[in-house]
Design goal:
With 285 residues, the protein is an alpha+beta fold. It contains ten helices and twelve strands. The chain has a six-stranded antiparallel sheet, sandwiched between helices. About 5% of the residues have low confidence.
């Protein structure tokens, strides 16, 4: 079996993350990010679930995740997974989109899995330049061409890429009411992720029974309430680690019960340990 290699780099000039996974068999559970993800499949085959749709990822596929797109994947076949990806924050994407379109608005990408030779011709060299620390404006040029191609072929307003909510058995009125209650639960977890949150607490806040909350939340968000909370915590922990805060302190500040729990979740969501992720920023400093 091919030796497993995981590499990550932060580019100070472009302010984006680049990472490369080789020889991977690890599954990634259903989760989401607060940033854009653009990746390229070098080798291997995976089953991807994204926004309640199913895909088979193969060599040459490009994946594009908008912020908030829930997704998870598992290995299929006997081969291993080779993948390169870029993480781009909303703030940087906003600036890139303005350069490309002249409008300062976030783009939304309508397709999560594509085959596009032109986009691949920009993505792979850009990734190589970032990983090698290449200087000069060649990588910025490639990034702008990549974003321009994706917006031109697959772009629409960001709000247009929020998936439609499934029908509620109570009809239109019940659907609106149910959506409000689930959004209230989300906002509650975003405000209180540092604290210990129990299911009963969420139920009291939304006036829903435990069974109703679990079913409705999973149906509307494509992810369970607990996984949603853990994803919020991981995303916040990434910000702290990027500032140089230790994994132990990041775990404490984001509501994890202990560092072991934090490390396990972080590694399963991000593919890197908290310490390795922190080091890519410390190395730059």
């Amino acid at each position: 079996m091919k030796k497993e290699v995981r590499t990550a780099v932060y580019d100070e000039e472009l302010q984006i993350e680049a990472y490369r996974f080789e020889g991977i068999i690890q599954p990634f559970p259903n989760h989401f990010h607060e940033y854009y993800v653009i990746g390229f499949v070098e080798a291997g085959e995976r089953h991807l679930s994204c926004r309640n749709r199913e895909y088979v990822l193969e060599q040459g596929n490009i994946v594009v995740f908008n912020p908030g797109d829930n997704h998870g994947c598992t290995q299929t076949g006997k081969g291993t997974w080779d993948y390169r990806g870029l993480n781009i924050s909303k703030e940087i994407m906003l600036s890139l989109a303005e350069e490309v379109t002249g409008r300062r608005e976030l783009p939304g990408f309508s397709q999560n899995v594509i085959r596009d030779e032109e986009a691949g011709c920009y993505l792979r060299p850009l990734h190589e330049m970032v990983m090698k620390g290449t200087e000069g404006f060649g990588k910025e040029e490639a990034l702008l061409f990549l974003i321009s191609t994706l917006i031109q072929n697959y772009g629409q307003p960001f709000e247009g890429c929020i998936p439609e909510l499934p029908k509620h058995p109570e009809g239109a009125g019940g659907r609106s009411r149910g959506c409000r209650e689930i959004e209230r639960a989300c906002e509650y977890m975003k405000r209180n992720y540092r604290s210990h949150i129990c299911l009963e607490e969420l139920c009291e806040y939304t006036a829903l029974s435990k069974s109703t909350l679990l079913r409705a939340f999973t149906r509307l968000k494509g992810i369970t309430p607990y996984r949603y909370l853990e994803t919020i915590r991981i995303n916040e922990a990434k910000k702290l680690l990027g500032q140089g805060i230790s994994p132990l302190e990041a775990a404490m500040q984001t509501g994890f019960s202990d560092q072991s729990h934090f490390t396990n979740y972080f590694s399963s969501f991000i593919g890197l340990s908290p310490g390795v992720y922190r080091d890519i920023f410390c190395d730059k400093r």
